[in-house]
Design goal:
Length: about 350
């Protein structure tokens, strides 16, 4: 090979080597530049925090005043995967509490006030900043226990006559019962009335009604409760309502001249009503003193054979009443007992 050709071949080979080296240097420089650029930008692409969400659950809501309640916050990604690092604070009730492997943090308290207790569960991950903060609002409702009693002013009562029921509270100092109480006859609501207050701590509601028909009525008072007080139902009161008084006083029968064989006088009493036949017992009275009694038969009649002393007697009867008719007394009639002949 001639010198000129050899020289050209050598130069071509050297040029190829230099081109390869230049390409390698350019590639390395580009990579270094990219790394530098990422470093200068704070690694934004690689360190972007993962979005999270918080859910709060109470094992009992509403709860009773003074009762221990556990609130649990569960932190997950938006895809539902548990977040096992970071902490949750239940503001304003606790500071930061670390989440466990299931992404949960919990606290227990018996110091909630009666009424709505509102707060915010706040999640953060200050140590690694791998997860974005998130929050969830919650409200724990707490009710103070109240009880309700029921009393009636007249029992039994007579149909058409007013009877008054009073429902009285035994409230907690943590709540004020109100605004109303409903009175029921069995499953039928009679009325809803406002709760009244008499200092220092007497809360009550009253119902006066003359609308109860004859018969037995099972009366209860019901308080629906509110954000601060528990619902309450009184014990039942069985109200006996008599169908009414007899339309007339009992009729008395006796001989005007009561002298009879063996000195016995037979007195009679009859009770009647369009509302039915009275039952029960009548007591015969002589000038206000009981001298005997008789049970009414199916026709509402009874008799009493009695030995009366000679003279004038003021005979009356007192009806003791039954489940339908009220007690009642008759006016007096004069009965003359003549002396026995000698």
């Amino acid at each position: 090979m001639g010198w000129g050709r050899w020289r050209r071949a050598a130069l071509e080979t050297l040029g190829a080597v230099n081109a390869v080296n230049a390409a390698r240097a350019a590639s390395a420089g580009g990579a270094l530049a990219a790394i530098a650029a990422l470093s200068a930008g704070g690694g934004a692409a690689a360190a972007q925090a993962i979005a999270t969400q918080v859910a709060v659950q109470a094992w009992q809501n509403p709860s009773l005043f003074g009762q221990s309640v556990t609130l649990t916050a569960t932190v997950t990604t938006l895809a539902g995967a548990p977040v096992a690092e970071g902490a949750v604070s239940f503001t304003p009730f606790t500071g930061a509490l670390a989440v466990n492997g299931a992404g949960q943090a919990a606290f227990t308290s018996n110091s909630f006030n009666a009424g709505p207790n509102s707060g915010v569960a706040q999640y953060s991950d200050p140590a690694s900043a791998s997860y974005a903060p998130s929050t969830a609002s919650f409200t724990q409702d707490v009710q103070a226990v109240v009880t309700l009693g029921l009393a009636v002013d007249t029992n039994p009562s007579v149909a058409g006559s007013a009877v008054t029921f009073t429902a009285g509270f035994s409230p907690s100092s943590e709540c004020t019962p109100g605004p109303s109480v409903s009175f029921y006859d069995g499953g039928t609501r009679l009325a809803t009335v406002a709760v009244q207050f008499t200092p220092p701590d007497d809360y009550f509601a009253t119902l006066s009604t003359a609308a109860l028909a004859g018969g037995n009525h099972v009366i209860t008072a019901v308080y629906a409760g509110d954000d601060f007080c528990t619902p309450a139902t009184s014990g039942a009161v069985t109200q006996v309502v008599l169908a009414g008084t007899l339309p007339s006083t009992p009729a008395i029968s006796a001989p005007v001249d009561a002298a009879t064989a063996f000195g016995l006088t037979t007195l009679g009493a009859t009770l009647s009503s369009a509302q039915g036949t009275p039952t029960g017992v009548v007591v015969f009275m002589d000038s206000g003193s009981a001298i005997g009694s008789g049970k009414l038969d199916n026709s509402g009649h009874t008799t009493l054979a009695v030995r009366l002393a000679a003279g004038v007697h003021q005979i009356s009867v007192q009806y003791t009443g039954d489940g339908t008719f009220a007690p009642q007394s008759s006016s007096a009639m004069l009965v003359y007992q003549t002396p026995k002949p000698h």
